[in-house]
Amino acid sequence: MDRDELYDFLDIEHGSQFEYFENFADLAEYDGEIENDVIYDLFQEINLKTFAELCDSYFYDTLEHVPGDQIDLYNLLENIKRSLIGLSEAAWGEEHDNALINLADQFNRFRCWYSNEPLAECRNMVSGQTNLVTVRDALTTSRLEKLSTDEFIYDFTSALDYPIEEYIMTFADLVE
Questions:
Q1: pLDDT tens-digit series, residues 41-69
Q2: Which own/partner pairs from 16-24 qualify as long-range (CB within 8 Å, at least 24 positions apart)?
Q3: CA–CA distance, 159 with 161 (Å, rounded to integer)
Q4: Starting at the edge strand that comes first in sequence, how are the strands of the sheet with 118-124 ordered?
Q5: Is this model's pTM higher than 0.70 or not?
Q6: Given CA atoms 90, 136, 123, 143 in this order, what sign does their dihedral have?
Q7: Fewer CB atoms inside 10 A, N or C side of the chain?
């Protein structure tokens, strides 16, 4: 997917229009291939403070639907959120290009892990059927489970092998 195709998919004409929850959700949940440099091009044009706010909102909504017994997944998603927000805040500073490259790489890695790789097992307790699905789809099933009579057991063990790059905050970052 090139930049123009991505903008068409996101229904924007320029990166500065990337300002709504749906923009972030569509990008994070896209299950096709997007090169890091295409995401980098988008991130060069968006307001990174808005990106950080959208990221926080998206993960808040996502974390609300993590099954209650999946504490490790909850903690992992919380750490991914902190990492992405920290990287976007770092991209506001002097090391803008390096931080933006790292943000694009880390976001795309999250997107692929979340929406492309079938790493979660969902077992329907009514039918007994077990499906291997993406983390995104398992969390969607968890969300829909509350609206149906089906009950599921989730296994995110394979999804927990997600390396998070450490983001080191300066003392000035902490003061802010």
A1: 999 999 999 999 999 999 999 999 999 89
A2: 16/45, 16/46, 16/47, 18/42, 18/45, 18/46, 18/47, 18/50, 18/51, 19/46, 19/47, 19/50, 19/54, 20/54, 21/54, 21/57, 21/58, 23/54, 24/51, 24/54, 24/55, 24/57, 24/58
A3: 5
A4: 130-134, 118-124, 152-155
A5: yes
A6: positive
A7: C
Pairing state between β 130-134 and 152-155:
unpaired
Contact assessment for residue 114 and residue 135, using Cβ atoms and an 8 Å cutoff: yes
Token code pair at residue 110: 């999250």
Handedness of CA 51, 30, 143, 21 (dihedral sign): positive
Q: Which residues does residue 121 pair with via DSSP β-bridges, in sequence order?
A: 132, 155
pLDDT per position as a tens digit, 90-134: 887 656 778 899 999 999 999 999 999 999 999 999 899 999 999
Tokens in use for 102? 């790292």
Q: Which amino acid is at 7?
A: Y
Beta bridge partners of 154: 122
